[in-house]
Amino acid sequence: MIEILMTCRTCWDEIAVDMASAVLRMDVEPRAAAELLFACPTCDAHTVRPVVGELLTLLLFVGIRPLTISEPGLEPDDVPPCHAPISRDELLDWHEQLASMDHLPAELDDET
Ligand SMILES: [Zn+2]
Predict the structure, then answer these.
(1) What's the start-to-end Cα distance of the chain, in Å?
(2) Residue 37 Cα, ligand 1 centroid: separation in angstroms?
(3) Given 38, 40, 106, 108, which residue has the most CB atoms within 10 angstroms?
(4) DSSP-assigned beta bridge partners for residue 11
């Protein structure tokens, strides 16, 4: 069990925050700062505290996995292709290729 000792800013009690019940939130972009989200074990107040420097390094070093939230984005299938739009000539070539597929050998037509 990994605990962080701190003072609650609501009840001013000295508390030990169990990292199993807390969330360490970090940005997706690498930064030397994070936020610790937890509920005070004494007064149950929900609190967000900045975590920086040596404490953040120690938490990551002992294996605390941060929660990272990225900006919302499109699903991969909804992202527009990165190549140039299809030209009229390419579209005509495609139709000619499709038309040539209509003349398949008879044995292939029987399988469908
Ligand atoms: Zn408290």
Answers:
(1) 63
(2) 13
(3) 38
(4) none
Half-sphere exposure of 46 (CA within 13 A, CB side): 2
Tokens of 108: 């292939």
The DSSP 8-state label assigned to residue 63 in this structure reads T
> Residues 10, 70: contact at Cβ < 8 Å?
no
Q: Is the distance from CB of 6 to CB of 22 less than 8 angstroms? A: no
Helix (H, G, I), strand (E, B) or coil at 62: coil
Question: How far is it, in rounded angstroms, from Cα 76 to Cα 65?
Answer: 26
C-beta of residue 52 within 8 angstroms of C-beta of residue 32: yes
What is the identity of the amino acid at 2? Answer: I
Q: List, for residues 45-94, the tens digit of each pLDDT value.
A: 999 999 999 999 999 999 999 998 887 888 888 888 888 888 999 999 99
